[in-house]
Design goal:
The complex is a heterodimer of chains A (about 130) and B (about 140).
Chain A: H1 20-44, E1 54-55, H2 58-68, E2 80-81, H3 96-128
Antiparallel strand pairs in A: 1-2
Helix pairs in contact in A: 1-3
Chain B: H1 3-29, E1 45-51, H2 56-63, E2 73-80, E3 86-89, E4 101-104, H3 109-142
Antiparallel strand pairs in B: 1-2, 3-4
The chains are: A mainly alpha (about 130), B alpha+beta (about 140).
């Protein structure tokens, strides 16, 4: 009797519905969502004395996970808080211009990810003959 | 965790900035009030903001594994400015003291206008952040089409 073929999660295979590209895409979207929330938090606290800005480098975390071969599915992103950064006299570490720019950048990042996900869906639907 | 968090956080910012505008407007309205509720001249009020810790079900879920989410901003209190009242020589005023001086509120209209602009701009930034989160969320919903 033939042994059933086992396949690792991160093995590239066009036949798997949830291959590593799809899982990385999902993890990146999670990361971008978290970053969006943190940047919004920074903007909401722009007038809070002593507030230190928060951010998350989900690109680096994802790169590290892919380099070490661990699945992006279980990857959890850790927000970082800047220390001793004051750009205003009241000790607030938030520069609204920088935050707005980062927010715009992150929005485009997220939209690009959604676009890729949409295209992948379209490819699958075409393959299945839905369209 | 989700994009709704970003909308909630932006909402907390909107509420805080709106309160700052209300208090600033109150200061401007009372710039000439020589007798407050306690019989003393009106004192300038200021909103103290602090970072809010995430609470509720979402935070419980977050502390159970996922990364600590953002909580937004909250008002920790409204404090009175301790600067002394401004003395104006006006012997005809019913609130004048024996020397003919009237204690006027410690409100400086220029400071108030600057605060008002700051609150207004911060409010706009929060609105933009909320709109951005909303746009992203509807883009994600389009994936289901």
């Amino acid at each position: 009797m033939e042994e059933p073929r086992r396949r690792a999660r991160n093995e590239p295979d066009s036949m798997t519905l949830f291959d590593s590209t799809q899982l990385s895409l999902e993890a990146a979207m999670r990361g971008a969502t978290l970053r969006q929330t943190l940047l919004t938090d920074n903007l909401a606290n722009v007038n809070t004395p002593g507030y230190q800005r928060k951010d998350v480098d989900f690109h680096a975390a994802l790169r590290a996970a892919e380099a070490s071969g661990s699945s992006p599915e279980t990857l959890s992103f850790q927000p970082t808080t800047a220390s001793d950064r004051a750009v205003r006299a009241d000790g607030s570490g938030v520069d609204p211009d920088q935050e707005s720019a980062a927010l715009a950048e992150n929005s485009l990042d997220y939209e690009a990810l959604v676009q890729v996900a949409e295209t992948r869906n379209a490819i699958l639907q075409t393959a299945m003959g839905v369209r | 965790m989700g994009l709704f968090d970003a909308i909630d956080v932006a909402g907390s910012g909107l509420a805080a900035e709106r309160l700052r505008m209300d208090v600033t407007a109150g200061n401007l309205a009372n710039a000439q009030t020589t007798k407050g509720a306690n019989g003393q001249p009106y004192r300038r009020r200021e909103v103290v903001l602090q970072e809010a810790q995430p609470g509720g079900f979402g935070a419980a879920l977050a502390s159970a594994g996922a990364a600590q989410a953002a909580g937004g901003v909250q008002v920790s209190g409204i404090v009175e400015d301790t600067a002394p009242p401004r003395l104006v020589y006006d012997p005809g005023n019913p609130d004048a003291n024996a020397q003919g001086y009237v204690a006027m509120p410690n409100v400086n209209p220029v400071t108030e206008m600057v605060d008002l602009i700051s609150a207004s701009r911060s409010y706009e930034a929060d609105v933009t952040a909320m709109q951005s989160a909303k746009t992203l969320f509807s883009k994600t919903l389009e994936l289901l089409k």
